[in-house]
Design brief:
Blueprint lengths: L1 H4 L3 H14 L2 H11 L4 H29 L1 H18 L6 H29 L5 H19 L12 H12 L1 H6 L15 H7 L1 H27 L4 H28 L2 H21 L5 H27 L6 H30 L3 H23 L39
Helix pairs in contact: 2-7, 2-8, 3-4, 3-11, 4-5, 4-6, 4-11, 4-15, 5-6, 5-8, 7-12, 10-11, 11-12, 11-14, 11-15, 11-16, 12-13, 12-14, 13-14, 13-16, 14-15, 15-16
């Protein structure tokens, strides 16, 4: 594996630094808004702006990459993201921060498009799985480590934003100094949502629901646990535990889904997410139960999207999988953009517990849909299922990294 990732180590370092710098901003911004007296709906709107920016960037940033090239586009997106990160200290107001989060989302999507297409260009059939695994490790470990920066402010509230901006800016260096040539830009081919839903209704609904749940979590989880009485350090630990739990459980659940009806594993995961979310909504203080349930929630909810992608791939022609996976990323992102507002409305009605009540409602509705699908259609035989892969929920370009689509990339390119 080391030999496989050596040609892309500069890209992986850039990903780690970017996620360490930007991955904790959702948590930090939600906490700062609450401390400033912003209402739950305002906090939800700011979180929604970020995921809305991801959708816009996923659809539009590819055109910029094709016009100016990967390195110039990457430098432009990172520079704008760094400037936006510093701008939060200028004025503590939800309207400004909503605009900045929209810019952040567009820039992060552009960065991911540059990096993921570059990684795909460096991969071949033999190394694709190793590169994808290393990419996911860099992505999630950077995001988890970044949570520890929440407590870096001390008496100077601008310090976390300044550290984030420094890390984001430094991420330019590995790519500017790399000797690896930039790839020719690629674009995933189109695939209609109607055809995708007809092929895999559970995959589509599951992707949207997972976006609703995780968008709500990233946008408002820090507010939820702070209202339970956790201090800043404990809040950072909780967020990190959830992310690490998500990393730990994806592979075991994926292997299980390779051996049995994948729909049963998806339905079971939604059922377990429902139970854990209800339990989290009933907690009134922090402590070990909160951390254990948080790790379980991360392990279950983070696995749902790659399970839905794998289930959809089982029901598609090999030549359709790249485009379909790109559509699933966009569906997830749309769900993530809607999730914070739905959770904020529930928290306005039910208090802090409303976040996980909203997530439980989403999981319960999809659980019912999944049970109906199991009764109304036949499963794909286990020997005919594609191998499970842990795939990122970033941009449609990420679908090109999935080894299950390696032989059917656009224009027949398998490198």
């Amino acid at each position: 594996m080391i030999a496989a990732i050596r040609p892309v180590q500069s890209l992986l370092l850039a990903i780690f630094m970017l996620m360490a710098g930007s991955g904790f901003l959702s948590t930090l911004i939600s906490l700062r808004l609450e401390r400033a007296g912003a209402g739950t709906m305002a906090i939800g709107a700011v979180a929604t702006a970020y995921f809305g920016g991801l959708v816009v960037g996923a659809l539009r940033a590819g055109g910029i990459v094709r016009q100016v090239g990967h390195i110039r586009a990457f430098a432009a997106f990172v520079a704008l993201l760094s400037a936006s990160t510093l701008s939060y200290v200028l004025l503590d107001h939800p309207l400004l921060w909503t605009a900045l989060r929209l810019i952040d989302g567009v820039c992060v999507a552009g960065v991911f498009i540059c990096l993921e297409s570059w990684l795909n260009d460096r991969a071949d059939v033999e190394t694709r799985g190793s590169i994808l695994a290393a990419y996911m490790v860099a992505l999630y470990s950077g995001q988890a480590v970044g949570q520890l920066l929440l407590g870096a402010s001390g008496t100077l509230p601008a310090i976390p934003f300044q550290i984030a901006s420094i890390l984001i800016s430094l991420a330019i260096i590995p790519l500017c100094l790399t000797r690896s040539s930039a790839p020719a830009p690629q674009e995933a081919t189109a695939f209609s949502l109607r055809s995708l839903f007809a092929a895999s209704p559970l995959g589509v609904i599951g992707a949207v629901t997972t976006g609703l749940m995780l968008g709500a979590f990233y946008g408002l989880a820090a507010v939820h646990v702070r209202r339970l009485g956790l201090n800043l350090g404990a809040t950072a630990s909780f967020m990190m535990i959830v992310i690490l739990g998500g990393v730990a459980m994806q592979w075991p659940l994926g292997r299980l889904s390779d051996r049995y009806d994948r729909r049963a594993v998806i339905v079971g995961s939604f059922a377990a997410t429902l139970a854990v979310s209800i339990a989290l909504s009933m907690l009134s203080r922090g402590g070990l139960p909160l951390l254990v349930l948080g790790a379980a929630f991360g392990g279950l909810s983070f696995a749902l999207y790659p399970l839905c992608v794998a289930h959809s791939n089982d029901r598609l022609l090999a030549s359709e999988r790249v485009a379909a996976s790109g559509r699933l990323v966009l569906l997830y992102s749309v769900g993530a953009a809607l999730g914070p507002m739905g959770a904020a409305a529930m928290m306005t009605l039910a208090g802090a517990s409303g976040l996980f009540l909203f997530i439980a409602l989403c999981a319960g509705a999809t659980l019912g849909f999944g049970l109906w699908r199991q009764l109304s259609s036949d499963p794909v035989p286990a020997p005919e299922q594609q191998d499970f892969q842990i795939v990122p929920r970033t941009t449609p370009m990420a679908s090109l990294l999935d080894p299950n689509t390696a032989d059917h990339l656009p224009d027949g390119d398998t490198t």
